[in-house]
Amino acid sequence: MRDFQVLFDHASPDLASPNHALAPYGNLTFPSPPANRPWIYANFVQTIDGIVSLLGDAASGADISGSPEDRWLMDLLRAHADAVITGIGTLRLEQSLERPRPRGPVFRIVDPELLQLRSSLGRGRQRNILVSAHADFQLSDYAVFDGDSVDATVLTSTQGAQRLEAQCPPHSPVDIVAGSQLSGNAAPAAASPHYASPHNDSLDLHQAVAALTARYGLRYLLCEGGPQLYSSMLAASLIDELFLTVSPIQAGRSSPYGIRPNLLPQIGFSREEAVHWNWLSCRKVDDYQFHRFRRKPAATC
């Protein structure tokens, strides 16, 4: 793996003794979290034309990236997070791809140095939080719920929790958290702070994040998507930073699998609602760009 070329970085202060594991990237620090929730940052890879998946409306960035540096950066961001949150659709898609993991991925750190960095940062055992309002799946179908490599949580509705608890044997390693459920009679509005499943069950994300924070003492939370979860959290003002890798390819929106998504496939902000960002840093490796953005407070936009 090659070192990142730092084009500019206004985000990270110089550290007197930076951890050796950070050497390929440079210093990386985060602000203290807000008083009532964790600092939440997201990580995505997209094409030059803004596509985040080559597989239609499902989301997987692996085929867009093709970069060992992007994979390493994912581990670096996981090392700083108390937990990784993602939608169940991402897990299902990764399981369906023809890769040597028939029961899907475990979203964990692979690099040994970054595992040591995580320990030096005082982070606990890795945790994956899977969001599914309806919870219409079998826990046994997915390796992430075995409890071998990471702790696993399912964030779901009250009804979803009942479905999953019926599957759990005694002393199950899976933690099920029931978020506050909203009416399933209609899909949430475009800029609604709710996460909706394809069944129109929906979760109040503010109350859900509060429940997770109280349960685990979260200070830093990494959102790895997919686009539906990310856009719902963005609309709820629950995304503080975005790490965005831009891959030097163009793909277009049309594909044999359907219309390819961008980061906000189901969200349309008005001019007044549009989210504004500060561009904190930019790095490159060959023709790949690695950006970091921090959300501007609404009052400054």
CATH fold-level label:
Dihydrofolate Reductase, subunit A
Average pLDDT works out at 86
Report the CATH architecture.
3-Layer(aba) Sandwich
Strand and helix order = EEHHEHHEEHEEEEHEHEEE
Strands of the widest sheet, in order across it, are 1-12-13-11-2-10-3-4-5-6
- Global shape: globular
Low-confidence stretches: 181-192
Give the end-to-end Cα distance, rounded to a whole number of Å. 39 Å
Helicity, as a percent range: 10-25%
- Can you tell me the number of structural domains? 1
Strand content: 15-25%
Helical region count?
Answer: 7
Determine Rg (CA atoms, Å): 19 Å
Quick rundown:
With 301 residues, the chain is of the alpha/beta class.
Explain the layout of strands and helices:
Elements: E1 5-9, E2 39-47, H1 62-65, H2 68-80, E3 83-87, H3 88-96, H4 112-120, E4 127-131, E5 151-156, H5 158-165, E6 174-178, E7 181-182, E8 194-196, E9 202-204, H6 205-216, E10 220-223, H7 227-235, E11 241-247, E12 277-285, E13 288-295
Parallel strand pairs: 2-10, 2-11, 3-4, 3-10, 4-5, 5-6
Antiparallel strand pairs: 1-12, 7-9, 8-9, 11-13, 12-13
Structure description:
The structure is a single chain. By secondary structure, the chain is an alpha/beta fold. The chain has one domain: Dihydrofolate Reductase, subunit A (3-Layer(aba) Sandwich). The chain contains seven helices and 13 strands. The protein has helices spanning 62-65, 68-80, 88-96, 112-120, 158-165, 205-216, 227-235; strands at residues 5-9, 39-47, 83-87, 127-131, 151-156, 174-178, 181-182, 194-196, 202-204, 220-223, 241-247, 277-285, 288-295. The strands form two sheets. The protein has a ten-stranded mixed beta sheet, sandwiched between helices. A three-stranded antiparallel beta sheet has the order 7-9-8.
